[in-house]
């Protein structure tokens, strides 16, 4: 995993809940190729069709609130989200995302400093988000060492398989 993640921003507001990230009416779908078609459909029905893999989602506070369904994180990984940078995250969504290998970084004030389509470079090792479109640099909350280890492995399952093998 690169410690610098670059891509175009897709900006959303605060309190984006898991039903907006992955609407409940699609819960019967489990194949990642099917699941990814519904990413962010509760807030932007055209998101999956227009999103470029590697892009970053930027949001306000409380991203991923609502139910604890893992589908919300699964759909973001399946559609190719490079990272989610938000002012804050719902705790369960945060753990689900990191466990699936999605970098989730809290960055105070980010929703007021980034516009849809801006080119961003997120440096995980320096906890810094650079808006290449405006030249502005935003300090973020550092990613913890263990979370970074999980992300570098591609998620908790690949990490455990690498450490302990298959049993």
TrEMBL record:
GO MF assignments: 3-isopropylmalate dehydratase activity
Entry-linked InterPro entries: Aconitase/3IPM_dehydase_swvl, AconitaseA/IPMdHydase_ssu_swvl, IPMI_Swivel, LeuD, LeuD_type2/HacB/DmdB
Reaction catalysis annotation: (2R,3S)-3-isopropylmalate = (2S)-2-isopropylmalate
Entries under Pfam families matching the protein: Aconitase_C
Biological process (GO), any one: L-leucine biosynthetic process
EC number: 4.2.1.33
Presence of keyword Plastid: no
UniProt cross-references to CDD domains, sorted A to Z: IPMI_Swivel
Enzyme superclass (EC): lyase
Keywords, alphabetical: Amino-acid biosynthesis, Branched-chain amino acid biosynthesis, Leucine biosynthesis, Lyase
Gene3D superfamilies found in the cross-reference section: Aconitase, domain 4 (3.20.19.10)
Domain Aconitase A/isopropylmalate dehydratase small subunit swivel, residue spans: 56-102
Subunit comment: Heterodimer of LeuC and LeuD.
Family note: Belongs to the LeuD family. LeuD type 2 subfamily.
Purpose: Catalyzes the isomerization between 2-isopropylmalate and 3-isopropylmalate, via the formation of 2-isopropylmaleate.
PANTHER family: 3-ISOPROPYLMALATE DEHYDRATASE SMALL SUBUNIT 1, 3-ISOPROPYLMALATE DEHYDRATASE SMALL SUBUNIT 2-RELATED-RELATED
Name this polypeptide is given: 3-isopropylmalate dehydratase small subunit
């Amino acid at each position: 995993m690169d410690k610098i993640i670059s891509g175009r921003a897709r900006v959303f507001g605060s309190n984006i809940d898991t039903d907006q990230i992955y609407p409940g009416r699609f819960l019967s779908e489990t194949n990642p190729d099917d699941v990814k078609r519904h990413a962010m459909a509760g807030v932007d029905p055209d998101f999956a069709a227009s999103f470029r893999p590697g892009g970053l989602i930027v949001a306000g506070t409380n991203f991923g609130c609502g139910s604890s369904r893992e589908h919300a994180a699964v759909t973001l990984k399946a559609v190719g989200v490079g990272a989610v940078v938000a002012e804050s995250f719902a705790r369960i969504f945060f753990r689900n995302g990191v466990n699936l290998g999605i970098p989730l970084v809290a960055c105070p004030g980010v929703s007021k400093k980034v516009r849809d389509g801006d080119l961003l470079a997120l440096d995980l090792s320096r906890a810094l988000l650079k808006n290449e479109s405006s030249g502005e640099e935003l300090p973020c909350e550092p990613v913890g060492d263990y979370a970074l280890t999980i992300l570098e492995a591609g998620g908790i399952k690949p990490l455990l398989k690498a450490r302990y093998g298959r049993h």
